[in-house]
Specification:
By secondary structure, the chain is α/β, with parallel strands linked by helices. It is built from 24 helices and 20 strands. The chain folds into four domains: 73 residues, no CATH class; 109 residues, Beta Barrel (OB fold (Dihydrolipoamide Acetyltransferase, E2P)); 157 residues, P-loop containing nucleotide triphosphate hydrolases (Rossmann fold, 3-Layer(aba) Sandwich); 156 residues, P-loop containing nucleotide triphosphate hydrolases (Rossmann fold). Helices cover 38% and strands 19% of the residues. A seven-stranded parallel beta sheet has the order 10-11-9-12-13-8-14, with helices on both faces. It has a six-stranded parallel beta sheet with strand order 15-20-19-16-18-17, sandwiched between helices. Bound molecules: adenosine-5'-diphosphate and magnesium ion (MG). Magnesium ion binds next to helix 11.
């Protein structure tokens, strides 16, 4: 009898009686092959993916406001639609505008690239609109609001007043997704907990998808986030235990020779550089492979620390490799280190456009090369080392786990690893997530650097900016001009490299103006960057490809068009391309979005301290952006954020309890799958 009841409750699934989370989504009624294909594109393959595809927001139309009383931000109105217009701006951009009116007033709604909106609305009927109201070209509008026929909603609302909104792409809409989830609501109620001793998963999922109150939804989300962090932290702990068992070759260089070399440098090392180098040398003397992160703000001189470490490795007869994320950067490292070491080290550059690769690889394989500097080209299958002892990854957050591991696999035993980054990771997270990671910090800039004068500029008052640029150009200094886009394709009015290059070339007929962007061939990019670093280009118009690491001390002006489009850390990185020599430098942030500068731009105008800005970023926007790459690229957290310390601690406690009580993970199939995924992701070596 009980059995029968169960199968009734689960009858919405085509044939499974229990809720098998690993089952394909096609088992849900209403998901045919076509829909499945669209969902696959969004990364949704199994029932587990389906129920863990959480709402991005909730609508509560019962709190609709009067149009006359709206304030900027998230708004919901109940209104009739009048005057719908469609404008086709360019090939790829359609704008639908409509006037929404209730008894108190009217406001514009604007939809980008949703042409069907033009025919969607019946005159005379009420709809709920929910979206963000903001100022655009001096008037308020609601951009891309969701729209629901009021009668439809009011009927449903008698049962559930809060409606989830799902993030969806392609032809499956949030509304459709809501139906699928509704179809399996009873099955969700039967989902067993994943973590022993942490009850409440089914309720959490129900509360997230079908909340009675927003608080219930929030609590459900926190449960699921903690569950996710549990897997991550457990994985980190298992990795830590594994790594402690590894052995490698100890590296011992001749310290007198090192001192001699440092004494011959054109400048004095900063104390921070000395300390970091010393920490690295001590790590490398051990047989347990080093796993160290070198954190230092832009311009703090990380490359020099890397160079000295490579020197020590070479002295002890082992090879070293430096992997950088872009061709431009790898080339620059190779050039500056060749100059630095002269014939003391034999250095090879290995990138996609390197000529005579097979020969070069032979030299690497038979040990004639001491130091290989390269891009991803370094980790192709046919690159072999004779004795790789030290692997260095510059701008490490730009690389995925698989790429890091491929580099490490080039050594016969696990090599020593030094990762470098300008993006600070909070201390507490280093400990919990990358538990066996040691950290060196360069908290000091080389002497003689001048602060960078940073100014927020409105697009209609750029005159002074151009005057000061002219003055800098007259001093033979160079200028970066950063645009958001390459050309005018796509749906936006943002600055683009092609157009600005033309304008600026016209404006400065006696200057060499060149452009750079990610769609150019590596060889072309290289050529431009080389010309720029030799001073043969005066103004370089570029996308953010120059963001990472490039070093041209003679460049003193950085203009960032559409600065409001970038995150704090990216702005800080871009600004860090200037102020690298002893001349005064300038950074202009053109704020094209609204009349008032955003908080973000004010922070960047105010401070030049990367660690301060990282904190500010955290406060302003939550961790998503700054740690974005760490989070999505490396850690693949979908619900939790690693900077939510409260939940991290909670999960940490659960992990301790789990291990103390001696659970055997293999008995929990879903859990061990999840932990295994994170084990792959949290290993830095
Ligand atoms: P980042 O930490 O951003 O990678 P770089 O390693 O590119 O910084 O160094 C920035 C510039 O500072 C380079 O031109 C480098 O030669 C110079 N530099 C490094 N260390 C010192 C120092 N101790 N004194 C003066 N200049 C230095
Ligand atoms: Mg660097």
């Amino acid at each position: 009898m009980a059995r029968r009841k169960l199968s009734d409750r689960t009858s919405r699934l085509r044939y499974n009686i229990d809720m098998d989370l690993a089952a394909p989504i096609q088992e849900v009624k209403g998901i045919g092959p076509k829909t499945a294909e669209v969902l696959h594109k969004a990364g949704i393959f199994t029932l587990r993916d389906l129920v863990y595809h959480l709402p991005r927001d909730y609508e509560n139309f019962q709190q609709a406001q009067n149009i006359a009383e709206l304030k900027p931000g998230k708004v919901t109105v109940k209104a009739k639609v009048e005057e719908t217009t469609v404008r086709r701006m360019r090939r790829n951009l359609t704008i639908v505008e409509a006037t929404l009116r209730d008894k108190t007033g009217a406001i514009k709604a604007v939809w980008f690239n949703q042409p069907y909106r033009a025919k969607q609305f019946d005159a005379g009927k009420d709809y709920y609109f929910s979206g963000t109201m903001a100022l655009s070209y001096g008037r308020y509008q609601i951009s891309n609001p969701s729209a629901t026929l009021a009668d439809d909603y009011d009927l449903k609302a008698s049962t559930a007043k809060i409606q989830p909104v799902y993030p969806m792409r392609g032809s499956v809409k949030s509304q459709d997704f809501k139906k699928f989830i509704k179809t399996i609501q009873n099955n969700i109620a039967l989902i067993p907990d994943m973590i022993p001793n942490y009850a409440g998963r089914a309720d959490a999922l129900l509360n997230v998808h079908f909340p009675e109150t927003l608080d219930a939804a929030k609590a459900g989300r926190e449960y699921l986030a903690t569950e996710e962090l549990f897997s991550l932290l457990l994985a980190a702990q298992l990795n830590r235990e594994e790594n402690q068992k590894l052995r490698t070759q100890a590296i011992r260089g001749d310290m007198e020779q090192l001192k001699d070399f440092i004494g011959g440098l054109p400048f004095k090392l900063t104390n921070a550089q000395r300390r970091a180098t010393w920490e690295i040398i001590q790590d490398m003397e051990q047989e347990i492979p080093m796993n160290r992160l070198l954190q230092g703000d832009v311009g703090s001189g990380k490359t020099m620390v890397a160079a000295l470490s490579c020197f020590v490795a070479a002295m002890s007869g082992l090879q070293a490799a430096i992997m950088a994320p872009t061709e431009v950067l790898a080339t620059q490292h190779a050039e500056s280190l060749s100059q630095l070491f002269k014939d003391r080290l034999s250095i090879a550059l290995l990138t996609g456009s390197t000529k005579h690769k097979p020969e070069l690889k032979k030299h690497i394989k038979n040990g004639e090369v001491d130091l290989v500097i390269g891009t991803h080209a370094l980790i192709t299958d046919d690159t072999e080392f004779k004795s790789l002892g030290l692997a260095i990854i510059d701008e490490q957050h730009r690389f995925g786990v698989a790429q890091r591991q491929k580099l490490l696999a080039k050594a016969h035993t696990m090599p020593h690893l030094l990762s470098m980054t300008a993006t600070p990771i909070p201390r507490s997270l280093q400990l919990t997530i990358f538990g066996d990671l040691s950290v060196s910090i360069l908290d000091e800039l080389p002497a003689g650097r001048q602060p960078i004068t940073t100014k927020i500029i409105s697009p209609n008052s750029t005159k002074q900016m151009w005057q000061s640029i002219e003055q800098e150009l007259a001093k033979k200094h160079q200028v970066y001009y950063i645009c958001k886009k390459i050309d005018d394709k796509g749906a936006s009015e943002l600055s683009n490299v092609k157009k600005e290059t033309q304008k600026i070339a016209h404006q400065f007929p006696n200057c060499n103006v060149a452009f750079l962007h990610g769609r150019m061939k590596p060889a072309e990019k290289d050529e431009i960057m080389t010309l720029f670093s030799k001073g043969q280009i005066d103004i370089l118009v570029s996308t953010t490809v120059v963001e990472v690491g490039v070093n041209v001390p003679n460049a003193t002006v950085m203009v960032i068009a559409d600065a409001d489009q970038y995150g704090l850390s990216q702005l800080h990185q871009l600004r860090g391309r200037v102020g690298r020599g002893s001349d005064a430098s300038y950074c202009y942030l053109i704020n094209s979005n609204s009349d008032a500068p955003t908080r973000r731009l004010r922070e960047i105008e105010r401070s030049q301290d990367g660690f301060y800005l990282a904190e500010a970023d955290l406060k302003l926007r939550g961790p998503g952006e700054l740690y974005g790459s760490l989070q999505h690229g490396a850690l693949d957290l979908r619900i939790a954020t690693i900077t939510d310390t409260k939940l991290v601690h909670k999960a940490d406690g659960l992990v301790k309890q789990f291990r103390r009580q001696g659970y055997n993970m293999l008995e929990y199939k879903e859990l061990s799958n999840s932990v295994r995924k994170y084990q792959r992701l949290t290993t830095l070596n």
